[in-house]
From TrEMBL, chain A:
Keyword flag Cell inner membrane: no
Domain ABC transmembrane type-1 intervals: 15-204
Cellular component annotations (GO), alphabetically ordered: ATP-binding cassette (ABC) transporter complex
Keywords: Amino-acid transport, Cell membrane, Membrane, Transmembrane, Transmembrane helix, Transport
Full protein name: Amino acid ABC transporter permease
Cross-referenced Pfam families: BPD_transp_1
Membrane topology: Multi-pass membrane protein
UniProt-annotated location(s): Cell inner membrane; Cell membrane
One term of GO molecular function: transmembrane transporter activity
Main location: membrane
TrEMBL record, chain B:
Membrane topology, record value: Peripheral membrane protein
GO molecular function, one term: ABC-type amino acid transporter activity
Coiled coil regions, renumbered to chain: none
Matching InterPro entries: AAA+_ATPase, ABC_ATPase_HisP-typ, ABC_transporter-like_ATP-bd, ABC_transporter-like_CS, MetN_ABC_transporter-like, P-loop_NTPase
Similarity section: Belongs to the ABC transporter superfamily.
Chief location of this protein within or outside the cell: membrane
A family per Pfam: ABC_tran
The protein, known as: Amino acid ABC transporter ATP-binding protein
Keywords (A to Z) from UniProt: Amino-acid transport, ATP-binding, Cell inner membrane, Cell membrane, Membrane, Nucleotide-binding, Transport
Claim: Metal-binding is one of the keywords in the record: no
Organism: Pseudomonas mangiferae
Length: 215, 260
């Protein structure tokens, strides 16, 4: 127990790094995922095919491989960045595919008549998407997006293996130092993850109930 | 609102410069031949009612006229301009033909006013204040001015369809397409929509109307076009068509809908 309480600051810095990683990778991949979803429904066949290929490759690759790629292959190509940045890149690449599919499911839930009416008054593809489709897709898409975010939070733990001092790697360091209290240390680590993921999950259920009720 | 009675007078077509021309149009869905060598030309100010059995290609014909669907062969011109394949130019030209759908398709997340102003602001580049002033006038004209700040889900189907007509009119289209505009409505709301359409016809709008409302066809149409299996089989003034349909399939079709 004291192994946890005495080292609270270490947890808190770990938590802060996890949050930062989540925030940056989450924003980047949400934005990129939305663009990729737009590509996947665009009238341009090449964009559709490229988008589909990206999603299928990334979704079916273990995230650890994506991390390996970012942390070991990119430096070989002469790109030298901090491990934190590599972790951001890896998480963003990976979760772009998942955010894309969540957004695309939301888009598909909007009645096709809406896009048709938008095209009929002369709106282009981008305008139809921005003004008509996405605002309506957002309602059904928020809960699945939060679920992707939760998965992302949990995946930040993989960054520990690549030298980022986020929550899990700080906990590992602690566990090594306080070897007789490993159980406590890891238990507390779980608790800190839950601190992030449980509220997110509750928010998702709350929004789900609220949005379904409103529509 | 005026009512035209017993077959509207023919529009002035002195110069014969048709607004909409389809020539040899063929459309396939995969191997399914949906429009077969369709020739149709529509004068300015003309009201054409398109009828035919389910699956005969009426909706497809409407949708090809403003390129919501592409065609495999033939030519479609609006005001002598051929529609381009895709892209920004197509989007602009598309807005010159207004479209009204069976299921209204008002933008569900926007008020009626926002529905009507979206196109003028985003496509025509109108200032918001100007677009809103024009939109209010149109909403008043179709009788839903009092609901301008409501969402589509808060008003009746008849009111939604009238607002959808206002939305299409806001683009100042050269022609209007109506694809079964009253088929999704409760009976008591059908007339309020047909009245708006009659008013529009009387004001000289060029209209293509797919409908099962034979009363409307008789009183407001200049021509009735009968389609079956992707072909135009008959094209006649309403009186001639209803009194004396020439082809067997048209007679068959009429006997079925009139008993209903
Ligand atoms: N998107 C599509 N893909 C494949 N086939 C289609 C598609 N849309 C329509 N069809 C087919 O094309 C034919 C013509 O359809 P269309 O909707 O134009 O008929 P319609 O005359 O409007 O019929 P209804 O009175 O039922 O509305 C039908 O056989 C239909 O099954
Ligand atoms: Mg139809």
């Amino acid at each position: 127990m004291s192994a946890v309480l005495d080292n609270l600051p270490i947890y808190v810095t770990g938590l802060a790094w996890t949050l930062l990683l989540t925030l940056i990778a989450g924003s980047v991949s949400l934005l990129a995922g939305t663009l990729l979803a737009a590509a996947r429904i665009s009238p341009v066949p090449l964009l559709r095919a490229g988008g589909a290929l990206y999603v299928h490759v990334l979704r079916n690759t273990p995230i650890t491989i994506v991390f390996f790629f970012a942390a070991f292959v990119l430096p070989q190509l002469g790109i030298s960045l901090s491990y934190f940045t590599f972790a951001v890149i890896a998480l963003s690449l990976y979760y772009t595919a998942f955010f894309c599919e969540a957004v695309r499911a939301g888009i598909n839930a909007v009645s096709p008549g809406q896009a048709e009416a938008a095209r009929a008054i002369g709106l282009g593809f981008g305008q139809t998407l921005c003004h008509v489709i996405l605002p309506q897709a957002l309602r059904s898409v928020v809960p699945p997006l939060i679920n992707v975010l939760i998965a992302l939070i949990k995946s930040t733990a993989v960054a520990s293996a690549f030298g980022v001092a986020e929550l899990l790697s700080n906990a590992e360091a602690l566990a090594n130092a306080e070897s007789n209290a490993v159980l406590w240390v890891l238990g507390a680590t779980c608790l800190f993850y839950l601190l992030l993921t449980v509220p997110a999950g509750l928010l998702a259920s709350y929004l789900e109930a609220k949005l379904v009720f409103n529509s | 609102m005026q009512f035209a009675v017993e077959g509207a007078p023919a529009p002035a077509t002195a110069g014969r410069d048709p607004l909409i021309v389809l020539a040899g149009v063929n459309k396939f869905y995969g191997s399914h031949h949906v429009l077969r060598d369709v020739d149709l030309s529509i004068e300015r100010g003309e009201v054409v009612v398109l009828i035919g059995p389910s699956g005969s290609g009426k909706s497809t014909l409407c949708r090809t006229i403003n390129r919501l669907e592409s065609i495999q062969s033939g030519r479609i011109t609006i005001d002598r301009q051929a529609l381009p394949e895709e892209g920004a130019e197509l989007a602009r030209l598309r807005s010159e033909v207004g479209m009204v759908f069976q299921s209204f398709n008002l933008f569900a997340h926007m008020t009626l006013l926002q529905n009507v102003t979206l196109g003028p602001i985003k496509v025509r580049g109108l200032r918001r204040a100007d677009a809103e002033e024009k939109a209010m006038a149109l909403l008043e004209r179709v009788g839903v001015g009092g609901h301008a700040h409501k969402l589509p889900s808060q008003i009746s189907g008849g009111q939604q369809q009238r607002a959808a007509i206002a939305r299409a009119l806001a683009m100042e289209p050269k022609a209007m397409l109506f694809d079964e505009p009253t088929s999704a409505l409760d009976p008591e709301m059908i007339n309020e929509v047909l009245d708006v359409m009659r008013g529009l016809a009387d004001s000289g709008m060029t209209m293509i109307v797919v409908t099962h409302e034979m009363g409307f066809a008789r009183s407001a149409a200049h021509r009735v076009v009968f389609m079956d299996q992707g072909s135009i089989l008959e094209d006649a003034p309403p009186a001639a068509f209803f009194e004396n349909p020439r082809c067997e399939r048209a007679r068959d079709f009429l006997s079925k809908i009139i008993t209903h």
